[in-house]
TrEMBL record:
Keyword set, alphabetical order: ATP-binding, Cell membrane, Membrane, Nucleotide-binding, Translocase, Transport
UniProt EC number: 7.6.2.11
UniProt domain ABC transporter: residue ranges: 21-252
Reaction equations catalysed: ATP + H2O + polyamine-[polyamine-binding protein]Side 1 = ADP + phosphate + polyamineSide 2 + [polyamine-binding protein]Side 1
Species lineage: Bacteria, Pseudomonadati, Pseudomonadota, Gammaproteobacteria, Salinisphaerales
Highest taxon in the source lineage: Bacteria
Subunit field text: The complex is composed of two ATP-binding proteins (PotA), two transmembrane proteins (PotB and PotC) and a solute-binding protein (PotD).
Protein name (database record): Spermidine/putrescine import ATP-binding protein PotA
Enzyme category, top tier: translocase
Origin species: Salinisphaera hydrothermalis (strain C41B8)
Its job: Part of the ABC transporter complex PotABCD involved in spermidine/putrescine import. Responsible for energy coupling to the transport system.
Family per similarity comment: Belongs to the ABC transporter superfamily. Spermidine/putrescine importer (TC 3.A.1.11.1) family.
Amino acid sequence: MAAEPTTQHQDQASGRSGSSIELHGVTKQFAADSIALRGINLKISGGEFFTLLGPSGCGKTTLLRIIAGLENASDGEVEIGGASVTDVPAHKRNVNTVFQSYALFNHLDVRENIGFGLKMRGMDKAEISKRVTETAEFIKIGNLLGRRVDQLSGGQRQRVALARALVNEPDVLLLDEPLSALDAGLRSELQLELSRIQRRLGMTFIFVTHDQQEAMVMSDRVAVLNDGRIQQVGPPQQLYEHPENLFVARFMGHQNLYEVRQQDESGLDTCFGRLVGEFERGTHVLIRPETMTVVREDDVNAGPNVFAAVVRERVYRGHVAEYTLDLGNDTEIVATCNNVGEPMFDVGTRVAVKVQTSGVVTFHA
């Protein structure tokens, strides 16, 4: 289903190489009628930023916990670095987890929180101090080491949680929706910072999120899950531009999805009859909104891939204008146009929409 793992960041990483991960037929059943994972097969390269994406209840956090050793699989095998860890307890896996809730100790200061795991391992105090200081500077919280945890902002707490995980130098870092509680601006900032940290360390990151935009910004590859099954695996661009089924298309945010119910000589019925291409009955057609051009009706001649429409709604998003267009026959399409300083079309304006064939994708449900 997916191509062999390729990581766009690998050539930028440090000399350190994170461990690969392989899952073979991993299943998790909590009760007879509660199956969280259904035969998961997955390969993650060492040094890859890999994201598990899907809605609540799809199994992504359960899968992360099985990799961490915090949950036992009902069936299947887990390998880290080429060795089976299926029966290895969590504390003996060189894996660390950053949780959504931070899980910091409020009675300890930042320095003590970061160094807690090293202290539990019996490391020399001088070495703990050195590694904590270096990690804090790396995460850009060196000035907070003496601060109490309850004096920190949400973003600062998340950085402390990340530093506490990284200071142990794990082969794999697991991140369970660690940014979901942050405001939008800080979340965007930390998305980029996490991606940069991963590139510099060369460590394997496995990130869990329900936010497709977050997955696309940060990841080398993404696995989309639903109902305990992997729906598609690939680089973010592949998942967005070439979804393999209706669930992936919808979850990646696509709205222009049409079922082929009848066929004419061009393969698609009603107002899409002039769309270039042949489409099998029962398939679905996706038209990506950014691959369309909206012009005044009088500015273009009718022809293949050109449709008359009426503007029913306009949403201004700053860098783009998003139009909902009525094509007739109870059919609407959404087009996204870059804001290049030209006047925008008002609601009720008659326009023509040109569709680029590169933006048309077909697939079965």
